[in-house]
Amino acid sequence: MEIEYKISEIKEVARRVIQNAKTKRILFYGEMGAGKTTLIKEICKELGVKTAISSPTFSLVNEYEIPGSVIYHFDFYRIENETEALDIGIEDYFDKDAWIFIEWPQKIKSFLPENAVIIKIESLENDSRMLKFC
Q1: Residue 78 binned pLDDT confidence (cut-offs 50, 70, 90)
Q2: Mind giving me the DSSP string for the chain?
């Protein structure tokens, strides 16, 4: 599935991602500035997060409570090697029944959860984005 959208349509795009995700593990691919974090923030809101949502670029993971569950939002942009993911206990997170959103998953190829949904986001020339479910 492909969705072309503008930022003003992000709420509807977030709803569609949730509705079409076949698992709670979602990998977000895209260049810097493509809109991965912006989309994840909106998905978190749609899932019921009431607190402030921020990028985990420096902390590597943010945790958000939602009714009946939790969301773990990872950003691996700044890691030097994938073993740094082991230092934060990445495998323990993947064993939980929680929503897991991962930005820059290509940095931890060896540890990616099986059966994850892959989403690719790219910036288009007309200030739009293209989202592809893979």
Answers
A1: very high
A2: -EEEE-GGGHHHHHHHHHHH-SSSEEEEE--TTSSHHHHHHHHHHHHT--S-----TTTSEEEEEETTEEEEEEE-TT-SSTHHHHHTTHHHHHTSSSEEEEESGGGGGGGPPTT-EEEEEEE-TTS-EEEEE-
